[in-house]
Amino acid sequence: MIRINKELVDYFKDLKTSNTVDCIHKEVFYPGDFLIHQHKKGNTIFIIERGIAKCFVNEDNGRDFIQEFVGEGEILGEIEVFTDTLSFSNVQAITEITAFKVYKSDFYKLLDEHHALNQIVIRAIAVKLRNTAMRASQQQLHPIDYNLKKFMALIANQQLNVSKQDIADYLGITIRSLNRALKNNTENNL
Amino acid sequence: MIRINKELVDYFKDLKTSNTVDCIHKEVFYPGDFLIHQHKKGNTIFIIERGIAKCFVNEDNGRDFIQEFVGEGEILGEIEVFTDTLSFSNVQAITEITAFKVYKSDFYKLLDEHHALNQIVIRAIAVKLRNTAMRASQQQLHPIDYNLKKFMALIANQQLNVSKQDIADYLGITIRSLNRALKNNTENNL
DNA sequence: ACATAGCCGGGACAAATGTCCTTTTAATTC
DNA sequence: GAATTAAAAGGACATTTGTCCCGGCTATGT
């Protein structure tokens, strides 16, 4: 449920420690900090080395929708770089985060010079697309109770403490509806 | 609204006519034919040369969700190839379609040998991800009337004749709800 | 023309979800 | 410990959406 990408972070760690390139910068973020701002122009990508962030869209009616929780190895900002568009979502640190930062031009250079990295990044985006598309249809076509149960199963193994507001935002519902669904689920599991 | 990708189809047309590669096969599909079957293993990608298809997920409760309508230049099956997983959605021809078909191993070879194609494909996936994610949050957080109005504006310019069932499946609602929303929208536009 | 079947729109009701606001609980300060 | 504030839970009602089903329209064959 918290997306991770071991091969990607390992690749960057190796690149960084090998000292063969000098375009990978390390950066630290604290809970609440924004790595990416919606509607802002981004000219860097990030790879999370440690920590957890939430990736969420703020709609024009004020409500938030959490696209995913991202952890170790997840790449951020690559969509903006590849499509040359403004960010369509925010990325905000939940825990303390250390991340690798690479500027757009350097990132393109890295992809050119490192065939394996190119493969890994393509795969990373493909996985994201797959997850996003599958969740969209599932969440759209199933009732809240069903989606909530799925969500709970997903975070059960994680040691992440998700706030109620975040659960509601992930499911795209109000807290009131979430409370009702939680009650339903516990009652039916007696 | 019907996704197209001119640069991708042009690239394939050039490759095909130049006769420098022999791994690009042309295939024809008729309305109703399936290019990709959900839950089946796919070992090819397609690039649509001409025609329109719908890409939809069938959920376990029997309902369908249309991810997108794809037209000229759209790539299909690449997610399955890159992530090495079963198809998570169906792709069905709406009009007659001609498409370029490339086997997985050949496709990887093409990407290796054609740097520009690699770029184009990465960009194509990035655009898909962006669109999918934006639509998911929008559709989840806005009422039907709002989403319907957006949808109508999108297909207004297209010469595509979308059935009511398809509109409902795209919006993730029942036909009954669609009819109500249609009535609302016309009444309010008086 | 008539009968039949199939599709389409909508009425009536049920279920799900959102909005608003009150109550309850927990936490904090003095 | 009492007072105050903030956070969580839920009641009451309105709105939205889904389910079920009926009646009408169209097409088709005989």
UniProtKB/TrEMBL annotation, chains A, B:
Classification via Gene3D superfamilies: Jelly Rolls
Record-annotated Cyclic nucleotide-binding domain positions: 8-111
Example GO biological process: regulation of DNA-templated transcription
Molecular function via GO: DNA binding; kinase activity
Recorded superkingdom: Bacteria
Residue ranges the record marks as coiled coil: none
InterPro entries for this protein: cNMP-bd_dom, cNMP-bd_dom_sf, HTH_CRP, RmlC-like_jellyroll
Keyword annotations from UniProtKB, A to Z: DNA-binding, Kinase, Transcription, Transcription regulation, Transferase
PROSITE patterns: CNMP_BINDING_3 (PS50042)
Pfam family, one: Crp
Protein name, UniProt field: cAMP-binding domain of CRP or a regulatory subunit of cAMP-dependent protein kinases
Source organism: Aquimarina spongiae
